[in-house]
Amino acid sequence: MGKRVCIVFNCRNGLECMKKQNKENGIKNKSLFRAPKDKKLLDRWTANLGQLKRPLTEHSFVCEEHFSIEDVFRSNDVLLSDGTVHRTERIIPKLRQNAIPIVGKNYSEKKSNAEHESFVADTANLISEGYDDISIEIPSLFDNVTPQRNDQDCEQDVEYTENRL
């Protein structure tokens, strides 16, 4: 069974050297998501990802950096009837069903806390207008932390991995 390494060309997420560097720097590793089994969705992933280390299969992995922030759920948020939001952090992030990766790294703009709070307030207004049993999942906001990568440390690991693929 292969290792969980991002299949996107020049992406090092999942490599042992990156895991080690992240641990030393106190940075959480990027989440990896398995490619879909559905052939049509798999083809859309392939078209969007561009250059890959090898052909994309249902056994391949793509890291969270190649998805929009809205596609990765880090918490389960439930809007209660009194307008408050009950948030439960997920131990393992979840990819939105039918999410399509974006080309290259995640360059989408991050939503500000104000935009997020505005969304929650708008939903609370729906409840006050008679929608009592609304339960929705809202993706959490998180900081875009990019680890400092030492290319020399990973050079051998990348070369080894690409030769094996």
UniProtKB/TrEMBL annotation:
Keywords: DNA-binding, Metal-binding, Zinc, Zinc-finger. InterPro entries: THAP1/10, THAP_Znf, THAP_Znf_sf. Residues 1-104 form the THAP-type domain. GO terms for molecular function: sequence-specific DNA binding; zinc ion binding. Gene3D superfamilies: THAP domain. The keyword Zinc-finger applies. The keyword Amino-acid biosynthesis does not apply. SMART domains: DM3 (SM00692), THAP (SM00980). This is THAP-type domain-containing protein.
